[in-house]
């Protein structure tokens, strides 16, 4: 059999109940997500890679064990994914008692390009950057907290010990926001 001639197409709709998954880093997800998955490999794909796309829809699900984050509860919304990107335009959740919303995209999982916004009652942070070889390059990092705002760009080099951070831009600080 010549594998270059094999065409594969498969799809599935999965409705889960009481799904509980823990990964090797001890991050645990539990809830009732719905998953739509489409797999394909066509004869024109000479690398033999399997393509995939679909959605994962959350409804009051939970995530815990992420270092320095704590438990994420009431996770609602949808992720749309393809072979090399994932996006969401309506993800909401609670971190402690704080309600948050997240939307954005991650493209190219090998050297990720991230465009995302995280917002809550009193703040909004938007980020556009890449991550490759422990170097986070920020084309734009901006946002606000009450009356304080910032608009920065630069890089963060992750390394043993303290990170090397080089950011430039402007910060308009309202000292009342520190109280």
Structural overview:
This protein has 179 residues and is mainly beta. It is 0% helix and 68% strand. The protein has strands at residues 8-15, 19-22, 28-31, 34-41, 51-66, 70-82, 85-95, 98-107, 113-119, 123-132, 135-145, 148-157, 164-172. Strands 1, 2, 3, 4, 5, 6, 7, 8, 9, 10, 11, 12 and 13 form a 13-stranded antiparallel beta sheet that branches. β11 and β12 form a beta hairpin. The radius of gyration is 20 Å and the shape is globular. The termini are far apart.
Report the sheet with the most strands, covering strand number, pairing sense and barrel closure.
13 strands, antiparallel
Low-confidence stretches: none
Helix content: under 10%
Structural class: mainly beta
Rounded radius of gyration (Å): 20 Å
> What is the strand tally?
13
Summarize this structure as a short list of keywords or feature phrases.
mainly beta, 179 residues, 13-stranded antiparallel beta sheet, globular
Detail the topology: elements first, then pairings.
Blueprint: E1 8-15, E2 19-22, E3 28-31, E4 34-41, E5 51-66, E6 70-82, E7 85-95, E8 98-107, E9 113-119, E10 123-132, E11 135-145, E12 148-157, E13 164-172
